[in-house]
Design brief:
About 80% of the residues lie in helices and about 0% in strands. The chain is mainly α. The longest helix is centred in the middle third of the chain and has 30 residues. The protein is elongated. It starts with a helix and ends with a helix.
């Protein structure tokens, strides 16, 4: 995998993060949940959409903010605008994986609680 491919991945992570921040705030205010997080079939079985929104959408925005940070760090590193030590790059990668796992757990918990 060349640097160009990794740069594309970083840009995608940054864009996804920006979208999650925007949609997290927007859907929280609306009392709804973004269709990217639950399927249409799951939405039909939601017992309390506003409760699901209050629980999930702020956490989605927080995850998105982390994605923005990870994307920026990756872009700076892979474009070699900033030369980070390998330990810093490894720490960011590990942090991204940990935050992703936590967010996946949050989504699973939300689905168990609100989708019947």
């Amino acid at each position: 995998m060349g640097m160009n491919f990794m740069l594309i991945i970083d840009i995608v992570v940054l864009a996804l993060g920006g979208y999650l921040v925007f949609s997290g705030i927007r859907y929280y205010k609306k009392g709804d949940v973004d269709n990217m997080l639950i399927t249409a079939e799951e939405r039909a079985r939601v017992s309390d959409i506003q409760g699901l929104s209050k629980y999930l959408m702020p956490k989605s925005a927080i995850f998105g903010a982390f994605c923005v940070i990870f994307g920026i760090q990756g872009i700076l590193s892979d474009s070699q605008k900033v030369i980070f030590p390998k330990a810093v790059n490894a720490a960011f990668l590990l942090a991204f994986v940990v935050v992703w796992i936590i967010f996946s757990y949050v989504i699973r918990k939300a689905k168990k609680t609100y989708i019947h």
